[in-house]
Specification:
The structure is a homotetramer. Chain A is α+β, with helices and mostly antiparallel strands. Chain A has helices spanning 26-41, 45-51, 121-124, 126-137; strands at residues 4-9, 54-64, 73-84, 87-95, 101-112. At the B-D interface, loops of B face loops of D.
C-alpha cells in the first residue's frame, strides 16, 4: 500500500484571532496531500485536468486533536482506504514537527467525469485505475 | 429547540478552477451560522471573547451533496444536538435559494476556558449555560 | 457618474493572530464591490462570464488607514475614474459603520477577451461599453 | 543591501473560476517573503511577537503582469527600500520558475508597538534597528 508524507508550512494569515490555525485551513492541507498521493500513485493533477476526471469530495470527516500556530511545519500522512471504479476513500494523519498527532481525517470521493457526473474510472481510464489499484492494494 | 437560519452569499474567489465553491469554504459558513446560533441562544461572540470561553472544534463531519457557484445565496439551518457542561454538538443543513439540499454537517465542540483547556460551562457561566440549555431543550 | 455603496460583514477567520482583519482580505471586498458596480452600471457578472470578457487586474493600490475587527460591517464606496475601450480604473473608500474611513484603494484593469488577451470592449460589446460610459460620465 | 529570495508553491484553491491564482492571494506571498526577509535581517517573527512590535501595513501597491496557475512554483525577491525609526518600505519581484516576471509590488509600513500605535524602533529596540539598518544599507 502506498503511504505518503506531505509537509506543509503554516502561514501567518492561517491563524485566527486566538492565534491558532483556523479549522477551515486544514482541508486545504489534506487536499494538497491527497493531490500529492494521487500523483505518486500514478494519477497526476495535470492528467486529471486534461481528462476532466476528478475525485469529487462527497464526505469529509476531520478530528482536531490539538492547536497549531505560526510558524510551524506539519506533516500529513496519507493512507488509502478504498478504491472502487466509482469511489475513492483516503485517511490522513497530521503531525507536528515533534511527531505529536494534531489531527486525523477521512475523505470519501466519487469519481466524476467531463459531465460532472459519476464516472467509472476503471472503464474510462483503465491504466490509471490499475496504477491506483496497485497503490491501494500492494 | 432553537433552530436558526443563516444566509450567506458566495464570493467570486470562493470558487476554484472548476468553477465551484471549494470544499474548504463550507466550514467558514457553518461557523458563521454557529456564531449566529450561539448569539441568538444567549451567548454572544463578544461575551465569549470577553470570558475567553469558546466552543473549540474537535470534530467536523461534512457531506457535500451538490456543487455551488457564484453568485449564489445559500442558507444554513442550525439545529442543536447536544449540550453538556463540557460539550456542544450542532447539526447543519445547507440549502440553495430554490430549497434544494446542497450539504449537511455536524460539528462537535468542547468548551475551553482562559487556559485553553476543557472548561465546565455550567459551573463557570451558569446563566449562559442555562440560556443555551433552554435553546437546546425547549 | 454612478457611485455605489456595497456593505460587507467581516468574518471570524478574516482576522489574524493580532485580532484584526488581515490585509489580504480587503482586495476580496473591493472586488465584490467592483462586481456590484459593474452589474449596476450594466455589465452583469453572468454576461461577463458568458462573453468571456473580464476586467483583468493589472494594478491594485491600497491604503490601510485603520484596523478592522469581527464582528463589523464595512461599506465600500466605488467611484469610477476612467473607462476606455481597453481600460477601466475605479477608486474605493472603505468605511466603518460609524462612517470613519478605514481604507482607500484604486484598481486598474485591462479588458480581456476569450483568448485572455487585451480586448476592445467598445468594438466587441458596444452596448455594454455605452452603458458603462454613461455610468462613468453622466 | 540584503536582497532575499523566497519560494512559494501555489495551491489548488488559490485559483479562481478562470483557473488563475486570484489576485488576493499575492499579498499573502509578499507577506511570507517579508517575514522571511525580516528574519534574515535580524528581526525574527518570534521576537516581533514577543515585543508586540510589528510592521503594520499602511500602503500596498501591486502590479500584476501575468497569470499564474496550479501547480506552479514562484519566487519572490525582496529588496529593502527604506528604513527609518518609524517606517519600513520594501519592494518585491515575483517570478515564475522560468524566470519571467509575473508581478511587482511595494509595501510601506509603520512600526507599531504594544499599544498598536506608532513606535520608534530605533529608540525601543536599538539592536534590532541596527541590524535592520545594516541589512538595508550595507
Amino acid at each position: 500500500m502506498l503511504i505518503t508524507s506531505y509537509a506543509v508550512e503554516t502561514r501567518y494569515p492561517d491563524c485566527d484571532a486566538m492565534g491558532v490555525v483556523h479549522h477551515a485551513v486544514w482541508p486545504i492541507w489534506y487536499e494538497a496531500a491527497r493531490i500529492d498521493w494521487l500523483e505518486r500513485a500514478g494519477f497526476s493533477f495535470e492528467r486529471s485536468q486534461a481528462e476532466h476526471v476528478n475525485p469529487a469530495m462527497v464526505d469529509l470527516h476531520m478530528q482536531y486533536k490539538g492547536a497549531l500556530g505560526f510558524p510551524e511545519t506539519v506533516t500529513v500522512t496519507v493512507t488509502p482506504e478504498l478504491l472502487a471504479p466509482k469511489k475513492l476513500a483516503l485517511t490522513y494523519e497530521l503531525r507536528r514537527a515533534d511527531g505529536t498527532l494534531a489531527g486525523t481525517a477521512r475523505s470519501f470521493h466519487i469519481w466524476t467525469g467531463p459531465d460532472n457526473r459519476s464516472y467509472d474510472l476503471e472503464a474510462g481510464l483503465p491504466e490509471i485505475y490499475a496504477a491506483l489499484k496497485k497503490a491501494v492494494e500492494e
